[in-house]
Amino acid sequence: MTQTTPSSLTDSRDRLLSGLEVYRVGGAVRDAHLGWPWHECDFVVVGATVEDMQARGFRPVGRDFPVFLHPQTQEEYALARTERKSGHGYVGFSVHASPDVTLEEDLIRRDLTINAMAEPLDSTPGQGEVIDPYGGLADLEARVLRHVSSAFSEDPLRVLRVARFLARYQGLGFTVAEETRQMMVAMVESGEVSHLVAERVWKETEKALGEASPEAYFQLLDELGALAVLMPPLTRDAEQLTAALARLDRLPRQLVDEAEMVCWRMARLVEHLSRDEIDALAQDLRLPSAVRDAAQQARLCRELNEASRREGGVSAADLKAWLDGVDAWRRGERQPVLVALLAVEDKGLARLGNAVWQAATAVSPQSLVEQGLKGAEIGRALSEQRQQAIEQALSEWQAMPEVHAPHCGCGHSH
Question: Domain ends where: 79, 104, 135?
Fold first, then answer.
């Protein structure tokens, strides 16, 4: 998909496109008719050859598919093609592109009916003629995600794509057609989903985490049995999964940009897992290090929150373990988001965490050097003074009016 420019919408007179049968297809058509914001277009060229495109100056970029870049606009134009299953997974296809492939044949290979519509290049998106051989407009009206043909079952990545579209459009009332749901269950049971490579699973999951209803993605995958295949630790406890999905949007939004939002949503999803389980899942999905680190930090915040709910409340040792775990000593930039993450669940605990962080990190290694300490002596003294600072901050906090205290073991947040 490529960024749309005004020329791509109406300029059928472009000399490079003159004489070509070109259609706008896919997401731009779908979203224009849905009234959903769109920024990108896909184009299909019918009746042309690779040689035709290259002779006009288009630059081939597709390694596996006949896709070309327009030399001026850098938009992507794909030759109409058909596909045939030739192996396992989403890459197990042989592609046939030739001038005799029709638009309808190209559209039928697509995943959902709402993605299998086309418009002439010289029309305005969402207005005028729509080529809709498989009922996409009707399904848009009915708010249904429905597969185009039985070929849907040949590509396991489509299970994740449908879940991602549900995460995007569930707020508009979209549901998955029952026959499509049954087909996806069969794909999971056949083992086809297990052939997906980790990088593609994470790529679709990352996109879903950025959608309006990310919980819908994981909920559908769980109902289909796919989540147990792709992210098994999440499915071992149904109640924990339900709670995890409910907290995906309980984030300190004011502290993170959109990319970080995705990172911290994933972190909140897995924060109830053990350290080893998070590391194993990160390895299995090839998660970026930033996501893995955020998940471990979220886990530590959760553990501190749970400690605060014990009989007697949070201890200095709990607070020291939290500061050590999140590496407060070297990663001071983490303080705002982690304190805010505590505040999402317990504002009192967050205020205590902030006070302890400031007190403990104020202990200066340089002052110990100036006192004449050397080598291991510095490390021991630093640890002792930090512990003392934590205990002092906690003591002062406990002496303050009760309204400022965190969980004290009574089961309520004061």
Answer: 135
